[in-house]
Specification:
By secondary structure, the chain is α/β, with parallel strands linked by helices. It is 31% helix and 25% strand.
Length: 230
């Protein structure tokens, strides 16, 4: 029996899930703008206890690597690496976009659009088979329409997921595109666990997950030893 612990902290939610016996055995999901670092480990303990599992029972730890909030991405990656090291198991990374696409209705193209906390949007387009049609990108509002026109057939219906889905729908409205928003607003560790179970096989040693940042952080460490320039 494969047991996978999945954690997600890269967006405005914190979640943890344990996959066992071919399905999600325990799950916690809480919307939050901040506080991921304080809530994550108690959440992990809760799902492990509910599933009657211990660290030595795990086969894999999975984590989202972004795009998303810089602090949240770092929190998740640090926790996942530490948990995998303690359990002596591999650590698999997947993007927030892949995680959301995995759970979406596969009957249409999908645009995942996430709030970047700036004017632009984090976006990625997936085909009906959930294969990516483009790399994840930070896109200015004026550039979203041309990107969709370039990637998606003119008559294709597009599903919209993510916490910026409504904004993306409004930006695409002038194109006359048929767009349908979904209920999926934020990535969920339960979907990540299912994705990891499909992607990973016992004995696989995936590369160490690395953060996916689509733009520089808002705060930059000074290069002059922290002294203010005159």
């Amino acid at each position: 029996m494969t047991r996978i612990l999945a954690i997600e902290t890269s967006t405005n939610a914190c979640s943890a899930a344990l996959w066992a016996d071919g399905g999600v055995a325990a799950r916690r999901f809480e919307p939050m703008v901040r506080g991921h670092a304080e809530r994550l480990m108690p959440m992990v303990a809760e799902v492990m206890a509910e599933a009657a599992a211990e660290a030595r029972d795990l086969d894999l730890v999975a984590v989202t690597v972004g795009p998303g909030a810089f602090t949240g991405i770092r929190v998740g990656l640090a926790a996942a690496r530490g948990l995998a090291l303690a359990a002596g198991v591999p650590c698999l990374g997947a993007t927030t976009m892949e995680t959301m696409a995995w759970a979406a209705d596969p009957r249409r193209l999908l645009l995942v659009a996430l709030d970047s906390k700036r004017d632009d949007l984090y976006v990625q387009v997936f085909g009906a088979d959930r294969a990516p049609l483009a790399e994840p990108a930070a896109v200015a509002p004026a550039d979203l329409g041309p990107m969709i026109e370039r990637i998606c057939p003119a008559d294709a219906e597009i599903g919209l997921a993510g916490d910026a889905a409504a904004r993306a729908r409004d930006l695409l409205a002038p194109l006359g595109r048929t767009c349908r928003t979904t209920d999926a607003a934020l990535p969920d560790a339960a979907d990540l666990a299912a994705l990891a179970a499909a992607r990973w096989r016992p004995g696989d040693r995936p590369p160490a997950p690395a953060p996916l940042y689509l733009r520089p952080p808002d705060a930059v460490v000074p290069t002059n030893g922290g002294r203010l320039r005159p």
